[in-house]
Amino acid sequence: MSQNEIVVADKKRGRARIWLGVATGLLIVVLAGGYFLSGSHPGLAGRSALSTQRWEMRDVIVNLSDPGLHRYLRAEITLEYNSPNLTAELEKNAYRVRDAVIEVLRGKTTADLQNATALKGELLEAVNAQLQQGRIDALYFGELIIQ
To answer: Which residues sit opposite 75 in a β-bridge?
Structure first.
């Protein structure tokens, strides 16, 4: 092999290494971009993705509508949502949200409270009717005591 052939072969290997490096770099960039945009990483995509938030209502106490009985209900309710602006609206309109919950609960009898799923649905509907910036996705009872 002559000196010219060795130089040409070295240049070809050098170019091949450069192209291999460029291709590897592009592959890394594409894979990393897909990872961040998928939302599975708490970094860049996680900051713009919606996160579940909670707002608690403590000591909701109402008289129940049982005819001839003097019973009351005490509840602690947690509202769950993903709307980022909803916390401020809930704080601003806490009195309306609480009133809506009380209105629903004080119209219930002990028998009505046996179907928790229906009760949660009715409460969600009443609370969401008070909101304009978003909606409550789920409602949980931390405490539900009838006495």
So the answer is: 60, 144
The span from the CA of 134 to the CA of 94, in Å, is 15
The CATH number linked to 86 is 3.30.479.30
Do 76 and 57 touch, CB atoms closer than 8 A? Answer: yes
Instruction: Give the C-alpha separation, 99 to 67, whole Å.
Output: 23
Q: What is the C-alpha to C-alpha distance for residues 80 and 85, in angstroms, rounded to an integer?
A: 13
**CA dihedral angle for residue 73, residue 79, residue 136, residue 103, rounded to 10 degrees:** 20
Per residue in 20-44, pLDDT tens? 777 776 667 777 766 666 655 444 4
Beta bridge partners of 55: 79
Domain co-membership, 90 together with 132: yes
pLDDT one-digit tens code per residue, 31-90 = 776 666 665 544 444 444 568 999 999 999 999 999 988 999 999 999 999 988 899 999
One domain, residues 24 and 70:
no
Query: Cα separation of 96 and 131, whole Å?
Result: 9
Provide the residue range defining the domain that includes 82: 51-146
